[in-house]
Amino acid sequence: MLFRVDASETIGTGHIVRCLTLASELERRGIEPWFASRSAPGHATDQAGASGHTVTLLGSPASAEAVTIRSQMPIEVRRKPFSVLVMDHYGLGAEWLNGARQLATRRLVIDDLADRSLPCELVVNANLGVVPADYEGLVEPETRLLLGTRYALLRPPFRAARGTGRRTAGEVTNVLITMGGSDPSDATTIAVRAVRSALPSARIEVVLGTLYGGEPDGGPGIRFHRAIGGEAMAGLMVEADLAIGAGGTTSWERCALGLPTIVVRIARNQDAIAQRLHEAGAAVDAGATEQLDVATLSGLIRRLADDRSTREAMGDRARNLVDGRGVDRVAHHIDGVRVRRASMADARLLWRWANDPDTRAASFASEQIPYPDHVRWLQERLADRSCLLVVGWNAAGPLGQVRFDRRDGEAEVSVSVAPEHRGTVGGLLLESAMRRFQRLFPQVMLVARVKNDNEPSRRLFVGAGFQLVGESQGVLLYHASALADTTP
Length: 488
Fold this sequence. Notes:
With 488 residues, the protein is an alpha/beta fold. The protein folds into three domains: 146 residues, Rossmann fold, CATH 3.40.50; 165 residues, Glycogen Phosphorylase B (Rossmann fold, 3-Layer(aba) Sandwich); 145 residues, Gcn5-related N-acetyltransferase (GNAT) (Aminopeptidase), CATH 3.40.630. The chain contains 18 helices and 20 strands. It starts with a strand and ends in an 8-residue tail after the last strand. It is globular and about 75 Å long. Helix 5 links the parallel strand 4 and strand 5. The strands form three sheets. The chain has a seven-stranded parallel sheet, sandwiched between helices. The longest helix has 15 residues.
């Protein structure tokens, strides 16, 4: 798998950080990542190489990059294309992607702008409020769009830190300042001075990016951290009462931890992020650094520090936007979901899934299932020609099961996702199972019954092309109109 991504003083480091996050998850699944990057101060090899990945340095014109990349690959790699090419670069578009067809069988673009043609198979845009219409005319009809904050590529420590909980402080005594990897306009210095003016006794934690070249004011109660890792950054966010930060990818890390934030726009691509977070009540938009001054920012800090209820609401709204599992969702789309017929060898696995508390609560029969009863049930289902029971899997392991029970020209569909993968892969699992079933029984109508209060299942079936056709005694009845594109 190949990543084409750059980092520099101008570009910053957000692109490489999110690519490394995705690369680490795919490497955990047995997919080896390679990187290709242009040489520049702070280029991607500084971080990708430090993570142990192979990096090809590019010096040729963009139009010749595909040839350069291929020529520098080992012979055994050149014999066949990469399975996937990931491009995360605002300066590359249709010409580059078309030229890169020889490099990979599939192309995925991580994008934020929706401002150019992107001939590829997958687009990931994790920004708040982005919709398919934003890519109308920019992508091919068959391109799958993974849009919205559920696809934010957060590093694992931020997902882990969500479990620590957060209580909004009555008084703001700890402020975190983080302006991204480079901060070319030195918004860091403005922020430090503004916090000191608004909250003279507050502790100030300042995170400086690897490419930051300024010298912000020091003094009592101010601590500086240079190029810290995800675990340390997550720890600082958990301890902070308020943050002042750039509107880049770190925005989603702060959201995941419910950290009230004043967002400063330090680059053009951050305008929409800052505006939409502000409109959602998940942050305060301080505007662009060109219009920012110490007095204005100090006033914003003081007003927010004095308003605990607003900070509480802001933290709750932010946390609800990002669950920290975006990298799992994107990796599942890259990896795909395969399905196979279940067998008696799956008995204990299916029993564990069936007895998961959340699964039982969503079922029409909520009692725990004794193992001997489950074994008898599974033997009957596997012997029943009117039942198709499949298990989904990929490099992450077993993902869940889908069952089709045929009767009178219809087949009722039921889905159970493994607890550890719930919320990330249900749509892909159902889609793969439906394709398998419809190859075998193309004329059979698919139906589903869902409890009225089971919102995740309702979204799952609607995303798979099912339409609500009726309701009876708190149970919703859905019919599949056609096999549709699904979202996990």
